[in-house]
Amino acid sequence: SAVISQKPSRDICQRGTSLTIQCQVDSQVTMMFWYRQQPGQSLTLIATANQGSEATYESGFVIDKFPISRPNLTFSTLTVSNMSPEDSSIYLCSVQQGKGYTFGSGTRLTVV
Amino acid sequence: AQRVTQPEKLLSVFKGAPVELKCNYSYSGSPELFWYVQYSRQRLQLLLRHISRESIKGFTADLNKGETSFHLKKPFAQEEDSAMYYCALKDSGNTPLVFGKGTRLSVIA
Fold first, then answer.
1. Does A9 touch chain B if contact means CB atoms closer than 8 Å?
2. pLDDT tens column, A62-71
């Protein structure tokens, strides 16, 4: 199965700033998915990133707040913009390969 | 709309006791169902999927379309089974997983 390298693993950021999270996959994949896991909650899909086109965002998530790049079939970034304490969460990327899904190790973001 | 329900937030059992983690889903078509596990300080990983009808680490899950359930079972719990378990569903094709809220399993020695 695919191996995903996600970084940073954690960060503490000031409110009003932005953080870019990177995911590198060791093989080419069509779709990459970005999730958020708020404290004590399940995983919520933020957006689906397809190479060569704009990401598709789920209800409640907008491109201005969570811009996504997908420059090639092995890499994607998610930016959390103009952060507030409510953005404190774990952010994960995921890819589908075959019949299964692989997840990055997550980025634990704390906004102070 | 797709929905996955895991009614128990926390489940505590004694070592050697049977375990059943409940999962119900809402979906109009023929979904694919998965169980994912997250051990402490580790990333989310696939435990099993209904298509393969396999047993992993002693866990099994049978898809019951009549009851729209995909409960996870193990006859004898081990301490190393303590983890967070997520039931998930997907549509056909290149679509993302929809997760339940998760159940934390605690196996007591």
1. no
2. 999 999 999 9
